[in-house]
Amino acid sequence: MPRILTIAAAQLGPITRSETRPQVVERLIGLLQQAKQHGCELAVFPECALTPFFPHWWIEDQAEIDSYCESSLPGPETQSLFEEAARLGIGFCLGYAELVQEGEQTRRFNSAVVVEQDGRIVGHYRKVHLPGHADHRPSNPFQNLEKRFFEPGDLGFPVFEVFGAKTGMLICNDRRWPESYRCLGLQGCELVLLGYNTPRHYPEYPETDRLADFHHQLSLQAGAYQNGMWIVAAAKAGVEEGVEQIGGSMIVAPSGEVVARATTLGDELLIHRCDLDLCRTYKEGVFPARNRRVESYGRLTQT
Ligand code: ING
Questions:
Q1: Ligand 1 and 176: CB distance under 6 A
Q2: Could you report the per-residue pLDDT of 131-140, keeping only the tens digit for each?
Q3: Among 162, 174, 172, which residue's Cα sits nearest to residue 115?
Q4: Active site residue 127
Q5: CA Rg value for the chain
Q6: Does pTM surpass 0.85?
Q7: From atom 11 of ligand 1, which residue's Cα is the shortest distance away?
Q8: What is the dihedral of CA 159, 149, 199, 143, to 10 degrees?
Q9: How far apart, in whole angstroms, are the C-alpha atoms of residue 6 and residue 17?
């Protein structure tokens, strides 16, 4: 009996600064309802799917920064999303800025959760690879202050048994690092849920701008093939508060083939029936454990 999971990448167009969380949640609920109508069991939303990508802005006031974070999930303004998903019987993955109080200490992470079809949070991940800078760079057309606003993720790369699949999450810049996929693949991960906010322009290295879409796809195809995993990647796309972000949401098979791709820069669903058993061809056939030579890889974990 093949293990088929029908999954949607739920791409979002820009979220404006003036858009309230309830207004954004309405967009997310609309996409969930459409995904359910098309027989999806799971929908993947982008990184920071509840707010504009605020690390693109220099913000001094900590209270303003924290206003873009969730101190509880679900919270008063996101509860309706979890309730509607449970009513529909569809699971989802949601990227959000996490604010957590640990005694006297307030900690902030760029996070994501995976939610079962009954509305329960069954997986939690905190972005490990934070790109950008902690200092203000006023001569840049926009900032990337994730290193200033967030801590690196401290949960490692966990894999969860959900939807009948070994499922992991990555967030945005993680997808560029082969180590991210290896840490998941070596746990038998079959399905990676991934959201991103990727500007087309890289102020310090503008020579990469023309290749932004190519590097995005290259990273996903390599990660999928080299670890025999499905990857569902959902963009926050379009020009968001003046920053042009690539779209290119896609679903990549364990073969490395792109099987579904967004064609707009707005809210868009792309759907595929993912046969989880295809992973075996690559996990066992091309990259079998018996061919792995750990004794030669020591450098990979040396600082
Ligand atoms: N954004 C970008 C990303 O990795 C970036 C930052 C773009 C870094 C291009 C290097 C090159 O897609 C986030 N949010 O990580």
A1: yes
A2: 999 999 999 9
A3: 162
A4: yes
A5: 18
A6: yes
A7: 202
A8: -160
A9: 33
